[in-house]
Amino acid sequence: MPTSLNLVKTIFIINIVFITLSFYFQSELSSNLAILCAAISFITSVIFDKRIFNSNLFLFLSTLPIYLIIPLYQNPMLATLLVTLLISALVYKKQIFGLFNFGEIKDIKIWLAVALVSVVASISLIVWGILTSELTGVGEATSQELAKLSTIVILMLIPVGALLNAIVEEVIFRGIIQTELTKVFNISVAIFLQAFLFAGFHYAGGFPNGLIGFAMTFVYACALGLMRCKVKGLFAPIITHTFADMTILIFLWVYF
Question: Where is each CAAX prenyl protease 2/Lysostaphin resistance protein A-like domain found (predicted)?
Answer without folding.
Answer: 155-246
